[in-house]
Design brief:
GO terms for molecular function: RNA binding. Pfam families: PUA, TGT_C2. By secondary structure, the chain is α+β, with helices and mostly antiparallel strands. It has 5 helices and 11 strands; from the N terminus they run βααββββαβαββββαβ. The strands form 2 sheets. It has a 6-stranded mixed β-sheet. Strands 1-2-3-4-5 form a 5-stranded antiparallel β-sheet. It is elongated and about 45 Å long. The two termini are 31 Å apart. 34% of the residues are buried. The model has no long low-confidence stretch (mean pLDDT 93).
Length: 158
């Protein structure tokens, strides 16, 4: 696929989506002026966003949300943006293997996490572990002792 620079309108649109989805300022963290986009062959819509040849996120056309890759999660984590879930040290090896995070292993989470939100999984020492999709809201993550809290999409290897 051919990668190209987005138009100014598309760049602003991506930044606005990121600000709504991950918090104000996230768009500037994720999308600098030197990003490249890859488009769908048939619809010509943006599918993937790259920074320095690494994919930082995908654009999900069905609902208009951004789906983070490991690089995108690390960028948000380093800038202290995004919805974060802190996991118990016992669960860290499983997160690194991209396994689900269960609610009994959730120590903390941002209060505004809702079901299907993109989240950043961190350790107790604030080390980036991976990215995933919330299966429970923040309130239930911390109070329930059974069930999947976050479906881990990708875990960061050691």
């Amino acid at each position: 696929m051919k990668r190209e620079r987005p138009s100014l309108f598309e760049l602003r649109q991506l930044k606005c989506i990121a600000d709504v989805q991950f918090g104000i300022g996230s768009g500037d963290v994720l999308f600098s002026n030197d990003i490249l986009v890859e488009r769908s062959k048939s619809t010509k819509r943006i599918r993937y966003v790259y920074l320095n040849q690494y994919r930082i996120c995908s654009y999900r056309v069905t609902d208009g949300f951004l789906v983070l890759s490991l690089m995108g999660g690390e960028l948000l984590h380093s800038a202290n943006c995004g919805n974060k879930v802190v996991c118990h040290p016992d669960a860290e090896p499983f997160i690194r293997k991209s396994k689900s995070l269960f609610s009994q292993h959730v120590l903390e989470s941002n209060k505004d996490i809702l079901v299907k939100d993109e989240v950043i999984i961190t350790s107790k020492t604030n080390e980036f572990l991976g990215v995933g999709t919330a299966k429970l809201s923040s309130q239930y993550m911390q109070h329930l002792k059974r069930g999947v809290a976050v479906n881990t999409r990708k875990g960061k290897k050691n």
